[in-house]
Amino acid sequence: MGAVSHEAINQLKTLMDQVDGRLKRTFQNVHQGYKAETLERFLKARDGSVAKAHKMLLDSLKWRLENGIDDILSKPIVPTNFYRGVRDSQLIGVSGYTREGLPVFAIGVGLSTFDKASVQYYVQSHIQINEYRDRVILPAATKKTGRYVGKCVKILDMSGLKLSALNQIKLLTAISTIDDLNYPEKTITYYIVNVPYVFSACWKVVKPLLHERTRLKVQVLQGSGRDELLKIMDYSALPHFCQRDGSRSSRRGVNTTEDCFSLDHPFHQQLYNYMKKQSGNCAPTRPLKHGSVHVEMPLADIKKAEICRTLESELKRFHSQDDLTRLHDIQISD
């Protein structure tokens, strides 16, 4: 939908002014001083309905309280070597900023394996990056640009995407559902690059099922997308997988400080040091313990469940075709 009316924002603000103190405190962590802009995000997520946006926001604030989200940045995943395994298998990072000052999040969809830790660690890590984005990165970008910056752009690298991605759909659906319900309208555009055939075919099936608001945010670019992305950001802000053309674009960076997925990259170093500092501020005498933060994962809505089933069905179809191709190749070689 388009712009949300001031009347709807004021109505939702009046309702939120009536919530109890605990909800107000956690709401402050959400809006970071930009209450109207935050209310607008939730209204957009519910097509301008004040009643639905109010329920969505209340449910989100209760989820935050029940799962200790306000304190999640004081709970780093330790030890560091274990966290490095999480970072090497859940590929996400910040490569820089657009010329308008929006942070550029890079996500290695195709090469993420999610096989170095339990589901809860990956969920915990994802939420921590969300909270760091909203409480540290975006406020800093707002201060630097002199105007409110409340969204980011995301570049999704599909290189290396295999049929084994079928095993990750449920985890990815759970993570995206957490985002939909608790961090709505935080991404202005999704750029998809290094697209293999299996994704192209699945995208044709899934695209019609998406909400128009989501479809309009997605841009599938040719190759590494470098030329298109350079229209909105400098070369230095490109993720490492977009800086080169051809087959080499999918490889991890040789220099780990340039590889925005690596724990050695400045973004992850700053994030991890921030969490360790917060941990010390909250409990200076208590040693860090190795254990994940258990976060209640909401069920996907009917629409998302339908998309998930469709995607699973399409990937299974490709898996069957791949099996037949291998069998045919064996018969020929025999």
Give a quick summary of the entry.
The protein is an alpha/beta fold and 334 residues long.
List keywords for this structure.
51% helix; disordered C terminus
Question: Overview of this structure, please?
Answer:
This protein has helices at 6-16, 21-31, 35-45, 50-67, 80-89, 119-145, 169-182, 197-206, 212-215, 226-229, 266-282, 302-333, and strands at residues 92-97, 103-108, 152-157, 187-193, 218-220. With 334 residues, the protein is of the alpha/beta class. It folds into two domains: 6-67, Helicase, Ruva Protein, domain 3 (Orthogonal Bundle), CATH 1.10.8; 73-279, CRAL-TRIO lipid binding domain (Phosphatidylinositol Transfer Protein Sec14p, 3-Layer(aba) Sandwich), CATH 3.40.525.10. It has a five-stranded mixed β-sheet. Strand 2 (103-108), helix 6 (119-145) and strand 3 form a beta-alpha-beta unit. Helix 2 (21-31) crosses helix 4, helix 3 packs across helix 4 (50-67) and helix 7 runs antiparallel to helix 12 (302-333). Mean pLDDT is 87; it is low at 284-288 and 323-334.
